[in-house]
Amino acid sequence: MGEDESAARGGHFGSAARGSRGVHYLAKCVLRGSAILHAVQGHIRSPYSSDIVFGKETSLELASINEDGIVQSIFEQSLFGAIKDLAILPWNNRFQEHAHKVQGKDLLVVLSDSGKLSFLTFCSTMHRGCFVAVSAYEDRFALFDVSIISDSNIGYEKISYPSENKTEGSSGQDTLGTSIRGTIWSMCFISDGTYQIEGYHSILAIVMHRKGSFINELLLFGYNRHAHAIQVISWYSETGPLAINISAIPHFPGFAILFRIGEMLLMDLRDPQNICCLHKINLNIPSLVEDRSFVEESCRALDDDEGMFNVAACALLELRDSGPDMFKVDDPMSIDSGGGKGSSSSKLVCSWTWRPGNSMDPKLIFCLDTGELYMVEIYSHTEGININLSECLYRGSPCKALLWIKCGLIAGLVEMGDGFVLKLEHAKLFYKSSIQNIAPILDVSIADYHDEKQDQMFACCGMNPEGSLRIIRSGISVERLLRTAAIYQGVTGTWTLRMKQSDPYHSFLVLSFVEETRILSVGLSFNDVTDAVGFQSDVCTLACGLFADGVLVQIHRSGIRLCLPTTSAHPGGVPLSLPICASWSPGSRTISVGAVGQNLVIIATSNPCFLSIIGVRTLSTYNFEVYEIQHVRLQYEVSCISIPLKNTNNKHIASEARLANKDHGVSHFDNFDINMAFVIGTHKPSVEVLSFANEEAFRVLATGTIAVNNALGSPISGCIPEDVRLVSVDHPYVLAGLRNGMLLRFEWPAIPEFLQSDPSRQSCLPRSCFSDYESSSSIVANLNSYNSITEQAKNCIPIFLQLIAIRRIGITPAVLVPLKDSLDADIIVLSDRPWVLHAARHSLAYTSISFQPATHVTPVCSVDCPKGVLFVAENSLHLVEMVHCKRLNVQKFSIDGTPRKVLYHSESKTLLVLRTGLGGGSCSSDVCRVDPFSGTLLSKFQCEPGETAKCMQIVKVGKEQVLVVGTSQSVGRIIMPSGEAESTKGRLIVLSLDSAQNYSEGSPLIYCSNMDVSSQAGSPFGEIVGYAAEQLSSSSHCSSQGDPCSDGIHLDEIGAGQLRLVSQATSSGAVLAVCPYLDQYVLASAGNTDVRKLELLYSDPVQRLVADCALMDCDAAVVSDRRGNISVLSCPSSLEVSEYPEKNLVLNCSFYMGETVMSIQKASISCKLPVDNVLNGSDGVERVLESSYNSVVASTLLGSVFVLIPITSEEHTLLESVQARLAVHWLTCPVLGNEHKEYRGRGLPVGVPTILDGDMLMQFLELTSLQQESVLASPGSSTLASASDLHQSPLSVNMVVQLLERIHYALN
């Protein structure tokens, strides 16, 4: 454990009086675990979609795999519980062939640590006819007969074995009157087609280890409907290898595959009373895959101890170095001790998958514990059933799960390394892509990314031979393609234009400056084509767009310019030397905003406020006239205009809106073409949806008034719309980005009938921005407000849009830029920082983009960059590409051995990595320096043979920095099972981090203990002056060839300093931790130290299996145990004189993560949101949380990253009350049936408070405003009624949202 010396310096002398007893924390998972334990596929989102569900320890991920084998994450959800098993209940397949009308989505069945069976679905209509089998670890199992119940409810009947009804004569008895008890290893239903046995409705095959037996047996159970009980039909046992699993053969009724160690058996179960084995396949055959050219060299098998594949157990047992002479160590506390292969040479099937579909020739692909993949073909003929085993098709890491997907793709999921996607072609498996998995995370280090004021995390991941160094960034990953020089000062707008509507790529990039406009051709190189396009170059462009194929329109303050570019600008241009241009001017008025659509130009002027429709007519060849079709005077100035892209698919918006209001008889969308709609924002402020047709007047379709208050109920200033967008996924809605950095979502509500039947009550509708209309066209009706509606406009009563959600994302104006020309496209929201708003999500859901703050953004689609995005930041143009192939925003550098510790050296901007488990030489451990940009290994310092580096820390000595490394020089156990230190020795090594330093024996470091000190001259490492640059990866791609998610590593010579030995000291015990103190001392934790020389300040009276700990100050520490808890320990504010010092630490608060925390680090995380009204507010809830060094970052064995941030007692009380309501509300309660307070408080003594759950609380931001009010109005959990009672006044939605927005902003 190493901490910054400032904590030690300021803690003991300055913080003792303050104490830490009143500190409250909120824990949020900022990166969910990547270790996948289960994988299933089915029709989850719709009856026709092909979806994949990854089951992790504490979350579910919905994903899909495209034809290129790229895994794309769709959605991930925390479960507030641990998954034990996962399966698909195939409603879709069962009923599709019988009646198309009842075809529906599949159900997801989850068995969890709650002890309950959970049915998860996206569908509210279900059908009857399926059984689900659930087993305990031993002695008991149950069948659930699932049936239909409407209104999203599932009916089921539970039948247990042994029966829970003690009055039944068959309770716990099989057909022979004996009770069957034992450990259940595997089970499956035998498909229909078995011989009918009277009275049995469903047959279940179970592999069971009966007590006292040396082998496992195969038992068949049947459900007897008449006796309403489960009974044993028969069993099968055969002397030989141990049976492990069983799987029914799809589309082969009555047959199953029994997996045993070293072999597979084809079982005939058609007659359940007469089980027989038809074929036996020996798996202990030599592999020929090493000679195949299509196998990736980088996919190497993991060593597996004792054939165990449970993540938690496997990690603790397998996470060992493979160094020589270390595999005999049996220290249960050490994960550094070596491990080797089990003594058994038999191969074990660890995962398998069947070919999907309805083929009558089943095919099975399975993976052995050696990482080899084989395929089995089963086919029938006149003589019976045959089975054919292929040769080895692929060799990689052993897979926890295999999943055969459409198009011949097979997904292999690895526990402690990256998975892979393979393609089955011509009876061979070819590598397609990787499935990222960063578990386990052994250590992390946080540093700023390229000085862009955004943090990134360097992580030690995996174990030898899959060890890697990962760079983890928050938000959506982007790949940086191009950055120009900082010559683009004063950019006011950016747009990308196509030459034709049907063009797949953009042709022009328009850049507007304060007094200039430039047009560049689109590509990886930008060329100026302004003169060839025809835009007026000496003005500031307000808007531009494609008016028609080959016709571009520019809008500036003085007028409108129509242009036909020449062939020199684009091959599809006019064959002339100069572009064709035509102009129009509003006269004395000044254009404030405008928008260009297909055959439609809309502008607005200020002082006076007019809204005008501009058209174009052809006079002759290359001769056009721009003219005003009509205009209307407005009561309020227009702040922004948005014209949706014309598309035939847009018409479904009108039909959906009509359907939504069908019951109310409203016909606002009758005889209305949605392609003629547009949206405006006004200074009222409001958003309004309007329409225009050549033969009609302006029609106001919908209007939404913007009235946003702060927590005190006062109106928030700056609520004028900066940008508006019409969006439609399942239904239409309007997005508005405000000038104060807020984001709003409006939706169409149901309209009460009285507004249509009773004109006298129409005054309750809000007034539009229209007032005293004037028009240059006689066809425009005079709509002089809603109080005097003309006969022509009586059927045009606008709909009052409902404000669904409000979010604060920054302080600068929020600009909305769709990623593509579609109403259902995701939208980039640009404010203080860039975000991606997920258009298909409920309410307002957005994710940060891993990019620096920018002023402007526009999507760029070119041949070289089809999914590009152009940012303007720091006066430069940045062309990036949204990397959708990466489920995780993680960069990978493969590294030899197992990386244990990582530090970021800010002076040289390099990484220091401690490695163990190295092979190929006498040295099994070293410390190396790595370039974080390229992954190049710059230098290294090797330990002595038999020595293992255990810890390291950067220590400041005067004005210089050195690296202090602690080692162990013993091949035996470090800590005995009793917890006492074994008789070992180690070294404390000091390395120079600056090649210019010249330390002598008179080093300023003076050792205060009885360690034997030696300088560089007497060290065996005195001759080491550096190593040539070494590549961390064996190939240009760090995972596998062709892996698009791997990062290329290039061998670059970088002039960084070498790791040079300064001095060393021998310790009487292994040096397990070092810590700098007061810039003068290094505290080293070593075994067999005379504790009488040390003063024990505080001690934890509770024995814990500690994974890691961090000192917050002299009175508080954060500690994690290997049971999944993270706790804050602190010293009470006052101690009794008679109290013993070893009992004076108390448990302040705790949090059950459900995962083992491997690394804890103190971090500085700012929860400050740059909001003007919050900065000026005086209310305590609106107080900005200042940057604090008391935050905690914790990484876990399963690849998760949690952040703990301190909050005040007032904020804790408020959020605790909100959490209590969310935990029981039907929209946000845990889906697996766990009681939230019990789950997060597991292992806690009674009365100890839990750390607030950020994952539960952040669900509040995903709700609509009405749903948020419903949650806060609910009574909440009875267990927290006392905490809720502390709030005498009702909870304010604004108050809660503003506080959670700051936390969301900080953690994204």
Automatic annotation (TrEMBL):
GO cellular component: nucleus
InterPro entries to which the protein is assigned, alphabetical: Beta-prop_RSE1/DDB1/CPSF1_1st, Beta-prop_RSE1/DDB1/CPSF1_2nd, RSE1/DDB1/CFT1, RSE1/DDB1/CPSF1_C, WD40/YVTN_repeat-like_dom_sf
Compartments where found: Nucleus
Residue ranges annotated for the RSE1/DDB1/CPSF1 first beta-propeller domain, each copy included: 35-126, 128-428
Keywords: Nucleus
Domain RSE1/DDB1/CPSF1 second beta-propeller: 489-882
Keyword DNA repair (UniProt): no
Main subcellular location of this protein, as a coarse class: nucleus
Sequence intervals crossing the membrane: none
GO terms assigned for molecular function: nucleic acid binding
Domain RSE1/DDB1/CPSF1 C-terminal: 1092-1261
Pfam families, A to Z: Beta-prop_RSE1_1st, Beta-prop_RSE1_2nd, CPSF_A
Protein name from the UniProt record: DNA damage-binding protein 1
Organism: Musa balbisiana
